[in-house]
Amino acid sequence: MDNKEKKELQLLANDMRKDVINEVYSAQSGHPGGSLSICDTLAYLYSKVMKIDPKNPKWEDRDRFVLSKGHTCPALYAALAEMGYFPKEELLGFRKYGRMLQGHPDMKGIPGVDMSSGSLGQGISAAVGMALAAKLAGKDYRVYTVLGDGEIEEGQVWEAAMCAHHNNLSNLTAIVDNNGLQIDGDIEDVAGPYPIPEKFEAFGWKVILADAHDFDSLEAAFNEALAEKEKPTVIIQKSVKGKGVSFMENSAGWHGKAPNEEQYNTAMADLEAVRKGLEA
Ligand SMILES: Cc1ncc(C[n+]2csc(CCOP(=O)(O)OP(=O)(O)O)c2C)c(N)n1
Ligand SMILES: [Mg+2]
């Protein structure tokens, strides 16, 4: 990709990170760490990969997206708002009583949300069903789903993986966000899912490795996934939990906590410095 395109993507992802911080700060609750680790991926997916029409969110032939790690919806809402599914001002209603953007994605009330999620493991199972439905209906839309590396410690994920291979769902791409941390520590200390590539390979998936914060790497990974015509594909992306906010990076403590005013100002200053660096 050329430098201009890359810079646009970097600016979009950086705006999304600011959105995430604004959402969680205004709600004084939510999950910033795992939201910040997927901003580049969602920026790339929504602006370059998926066939979508934000003015027609229920378009029958659209590609589908399921945020299986539903707690990181601040990043999804940021992507949807930046793409124009709803006004950016809605983001400040995040987690507020009576408002649209709930603490986990709600397909009934939020334009652009294809599946409700939050109970880890269920999202990928729904995504498998959607991909199977497309095949049975002779449709060529694709289904993308993002999972956490802690989430894949949930047994239901592997039932879904088996089912996807059994049905040759080459129209399904899962992205495992390998930030190394889950709710209260290192994924290895909780239930050790490594080695992740070998596990998916054993379940019959095509495995692609990527750097979650490098758009050339993401471009190559998604192109490779699109080219696979036989098997379901999984992109295992190495990422940094809390990416872009100095004090949140690689810290399990920022899995599900809101910044106070001083921390909010530091976070926004960090992200503003990134923007200035990109525009220089
Ligand atoms: C079935 C289920 N069990 C437990 C939880 C509580 N929970 C919410 S987030 C989380 C950790 C998820 O870690 P990971 O998938 O690595 O997400 P990320 O690091 O991207 O935030 C847990 C255990 C849940 N939402 N669903
Ligand atoms: Mg994780």
Please give a structural write-up.
The chain is of the alpha/beta class. The chain has a single domain (3-279), classed as Thiamin diphosphate (ThDP)-binding fold, Pyr/PP domains (Rossmann fold, 3-Layer(aba) Sandwich). 43% of the residues lie in helices and 12% in strands. The chain contains 10 helices and 7 strands. A 5-stranded parallel beta sheet has the order 1-2-3-7-6, with helices on both faces. A two-stranded antiparallel ribbon has the order 4-5. Helix 1 packs across helix 4 (73-83), helix 3 packs parallel to helix 4 and helix 3 (39-49) packs across helix 9. The longest helix has 25 residues, at 3-27. It starts with a helix and ends with a helix. The mean pLDDT is 98. The chain binds thiamine diphosphate and magnesium ion (MG). Magnesium ion is lined by residues 34, 148-150, 179, 181-182.
What is the overall shape? globular
CATH fold-type name = Rossmann fold
CATH class categorisation: Alpha Beta
Bound molecules: thiamine diphosphate, magnesium ion
Please count the beta strands (DSSP E, at least 2 residues each): 7
- What is the helix tally? 10
Low-confidence stretches: none
Please summarize what this structure is:
This protein is 43% helix and 12% strand.
